[in-house]
UniProtKB/TrEMBL annotation:
This is Cytidylate kinase. GO terms for cellular component: cytosol. The lineage of its organism: Bacteria, Pseudomonadati, Bacteroidota, Flavobacteriia, Flavobacteriales. It comes from Gelidibacter algens. One of its GO terms (molecular function) is ATP binding. It catalyses: CMP + ATP = CDP + ADP; dCMP + ATP = dCDP + ADP.
Length: 230
């Protein structure tokens, strides 16, 4: 059967990666978490003291980009590909609130975006890919056969993310998580290079009141329809 490209964009913690993983599994496609790549660059900048709460040495990060290798390796037990930074598995280290608090600043840098977008486009060359992020339907795969744009209220999203962090034993307050979600929404939507916006032909889904199962069923039906008509 003909393979298509599926682009899932939207705000933080709308359930993009959860549904993208489920879709990829159901269709036998590759799942790519583009946000993990921006998070890995951010972790690199933090590890090399290029970024902290009140300081960001953009020049030093840009000049170090060619020393930075981001790869994915499929984990059979987890059922998805984990992200590696220069050969080291950083799948857990990139999900902390600390990384979330700097990632949108890193994602504003055009040199970073250029490098990651090229790599993302290469990963999708043969189609059969589900990729989630902020600019997948607008910049990375403007010709994707199915584009979805996910939204949900900030409160709902912060609650979801807060629960996730608590489950991972990261003791953070709900208020800090909400602040982070709102601040990333703002930076991601207003940056000059590839801002977060709904592609013209994207289908918007508000999942504030959708269960994971209903959300998956909706997207699976959309994917089947897109595959049949392309
Ligand atoms: O999981 P969550 O929605 O919180 O974020 P993510 O998908 O891991 O993305 C983290 C950050 O990376 C976003 O807030 C954006 O600043 C940036 N990002 C981006 O600019 N473009 C993408 N395609 C994916 C992520
Ligand atoms: O990738 P993104 O940041 O958009 O979100 P995610 O990591 O897939 O989902 C964030 C959290 O919200 C996860 O714990 C999901 O299980 C949860 N979620 C939910 O409870 N109900 C939904 N309809 C969507 C997501």
């Amino acid at each position: 059967m003909k393979k298509i490209t599926i682009a899932i964009d939207g705000f933080s913690s709308t359930g993009k990666s959860t549904v993208a993983k489920q879709l990829a599994k159901a269709l036998g496609y590759v799942y790519v978490d583009s946000g993990a790549m921006y998070r890995a660059v951010t972790l690199f900048a933090m590890q090399h003291q290029m970024i902290s709460k009140d300081h960001f040495d953009v020049k030093r990060l840009v000049s170090a980009l060619d020393t930075l290798k981001i790869t994915f390796k499929y984990n059979d037990t987890l059922g998805f590909a984990e992200v590696y930074l220069n050969g080291i598995n950083v799948e857990n280290d990139i999900r902390t609130l600390e990384v979330s608090q700097s990632v949108s600043q890193v994602a504003e840098i055009s040199e970073v975006r250029r490098m990651l977008v090229l790599q993302q486009q290469r990963m999708g060359e043969e189609k059969g890919v589900v990729m989630d992020g902020r600019d997948i339907g607008t910049v990375v795969f403007p010709d994707a056969e199915l584009k979805v744009f996910m939204i949900a209220s900030a409160e709902t999203r912060a609650k979801r993310r807060h629960n996730e962090l608590l489950e991972r034993n990261e003791k953070v307050s709900f208020d800090d998580v909400l602040k982070n979600v709102e601040s990333r929404d703002m930076i991601d939507s207003s940056r000059k290079d590839s801002p977060l916006l709904k592609a013209e032909n994207a289908i918007e889904i508000d999942n504030s009141n959708l269960s994971l199962t209903t959300q998956f069923e909706k997207l699976y039906a959309l994917a089947q329809n897109a595959i049949e008509h392309n």
